[in-house]
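Handout, section 4.2: multi-component inputs.
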Amino acid sequence: MVGAADFVGRDVISIKDFTRDEIDYILRIAGEMAPLAKSGSDILRGRIMATLFFEPSTRTRLSFEAAMYKLGGSVIGFSEPEISSVKKGESLVDTVRVVEKYADVIVLRHPSEGAARFAAEYARAPVINAGSGAEEHPTQALLDLYTILKEKGRIDGLTVALMGDLRYGRTVHSLAYALSLYKVRLFLVSPDLLKMRREVLEDIKNRIEVYEYSSIEEVLPEVDVLYVTRIQKERFPDLAEYAKVRGSYKVDLNVLRRARSDLIILHPLPRVDEIAVEVDSTPFARYFQQVENGLVTRMALLALILGAIKE
Ligand code: NCD
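Output:
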C-alpha cells in the first residue's frame, strides 16, 4: 500500500519513476489541497524551495512558487541564468551543490535532456524536473491526469488523442508514459515529421493500444480527451524543417463539428495558433482549468516530498 512516507525526500525526474498506485495517491492528495489553495496554510512554514530555470516559463515556475507560498513556505531562485553565476561559467553541478545549502527542494528546468537526472545525482536535496529539454515534464503529466480525472471522473476506459508536436514536446512524452499505466486507448496524431519519439512508442505499446494518424478529422468522433500541443520551434535543429510543418494542424469550430458532445480539449499552454481562439468559449475547452489544477497538483507534490502529509 502506498503511503505518504513513500514520497519523502524523493526526486521527481521522470514520470516513469512512479507506479500507477503512487500516481493515484498524488492525485488524491491534490484533491485534498483544493481547500488549502483557497484558505492558505502553513504546513511548509520554514521550508524553502529553489527554482532554477534555465529556460523560459510562465505557468510551471509561477505555479510551483504559488504552491509553495500557499503552503506557507518560501521561494528563492532565478529565471534569468544570465544574471546568476551561471553566466560566469559555473557548472550545473556546482550551482545545484550551492543552492541545496539554502533550499529544501530544488525545481529545475533546463534545455538539456538528462540535466535533471544529472543534477539529482549530485544533490542531496530532492530535485523536481520542471522540464528537461525535449525529454520529459513529469509534473505537467500529473496535472494533466488530475484534470482528466476531475473532468471525466475516471481515466480508465477513455480514448485519448495526443495531437501536435509529439517529437519535441516533452509534455506529451511524460503524459504518454503516464497514460500507459491506465486502461486507455491512445491516438497519436501528428504530421510525419513530428511523430512520437520511437523510444516512447516502443515503451507504451507494450501496455496499451496505440494508433498513429496524420490528421484528427477521421478519428475525432471516437475521442474523449483531445490533448493539443504547439510546435516546439526552439527545439528544431534546422529551421527549414520547422517551415515545413508550421501551421500544419489547427483545431477550430469546423474541425469540432465531428466531436462528441462530451469531448474535452486540453493544452499545456502556451498556445500559438494550434487552437483557434473561437474554441475557448465552447464547452470543450478545459485548458484554463488545467492551469488551476497545476497549482493543487504541485502543492500535493511539494507537501509530500517535504514530509508535511501524515497518513
Ligand atoms: C510546456 C513546456 O514548457 O514544455 N509548457 C508548460 O510547461 N506548460 C509546453 C510548451 O512549451 O509548449
